[in-house]
Amino acid sequence: MQTISENGTKRDLNRENILKIAREIFSKYGYKKTTLDDIANAVRKGKSSLYYYFNSKEDLFQAVVVKEVEILANALEIVINRNTDPIEKLRDYILTKLTTFRSLANFYHAIENEVTAVEFIDKVKQKYEQDEIRIIKRILIEGVRKGEFEIYDFNLAAIGITTAIKGLEMPLSAGNYGAVNLERSVDIILKIICYGIMKR
User: Fold this and answer.
1) How far is Cα 75 from Cα 39, in angstroms, rounded to an integer?
2) Contact (CB, 8 A) for 32 and 115
3) Superfamily of domain 1-54
4) What sign does the CA torsion over 75, 87, 102, 56 have?
5) CA dihedral defined by 110, 116, 120, 124, rounded to 10 degrees?
6) Do 170 and 113 touch, CB atoms closer than 8 A?
7) Dihedral (C-alpha) 164, 170, 176, 177: value to the nearest 10 degrees?
8) CA–CA separation, 19 vs 7, rounded Å?
9) What are the backbone dihedrals phi and psi of residue 157, each rounded to the nearest 5 degrees, phi first?
10) What DSSP state is assigned to residue 85?
């Protein structure tokens, strides 16, 4: 006889497995073309068993987007907690952000196309943007403390850098530059962010 805790763990594992497979299918076919039957077949369960974990296709897609946000947030948190100097940390942050973003097709499509649940996607975008500004601000404050940066308005500087990175997400993930070397691109962008474009 299974205990409540074992049932809970099994339920969590099943839910995670559905999310993992749903992520792959949504990213391959897109939200509109994917059906719950596609996901149920891939998971090797009946469609009715998906309803045990998710209320609808939209609910499942939202859970996938939240999962991808968590993956991105965890990857960025690791960078932030590394014991590196602020310029290296900023470089690692931008590189990790763009590398991870390239692999998160569902989150990318959701924030670009807002395919479903506009209000939900807006909330995710706002929280994600606020978290980004907060993280960049932490790097900038650390840089000023260590005498590497000179910044007079941390908030404005963090918003500017965050906006610049956000502007790079689309071209460096799926646009004309989708195949370029990210490390080289990040080094070029970081040079502009840190030193500007004026001849010295």
Assistant:
1) 27
2) yes
3) Homeodomain-like (1.10.10.60)
4) positive
5) 0
6) no
7) 60
8) 18
9) -65, -45
10) -
Domain residue spans of the chain:
1-54, 58-195
Predicted TM-score (pTM) above 0.85: no
CB count within 10 Å of CB 52 equals 12
Tens of pLDDT, residue by residue over 9-47, are 877 788 899 999 998 888 888 788 888 999 999 988 888
Lookup: tokens for 193: 């962010």
How does 116-142 read in b/e, with b if 16+ C-beta sit within 10 Å?
Answer: bbeebbeebeeebeebbbebbbbbbeb
8 A C-beta contact, residue 110 and residue 124: yes
User: Which of 88, 42, 112, 104 is closest to 183 using CA atoms?
Assistant: 88
Handedness of CA 145, 165, 173, 61 (dihedral sign): positive
Token output for 41: 């077949």
**Residue range 130-177, pLDDT digits in tens:** 888 999 999 999 999 999 999 999 999 999 999 888 887 777 666 566
Question: What would the two tokens of residue 103 be?
Answer: 């692999």
List Cβ neighbours of 165 (8 Å cut-off, separation of 6 or more). 94, 97, 98, 132
To the question of domain 58-195 being in CATH 1.10.760.10, the answer is no
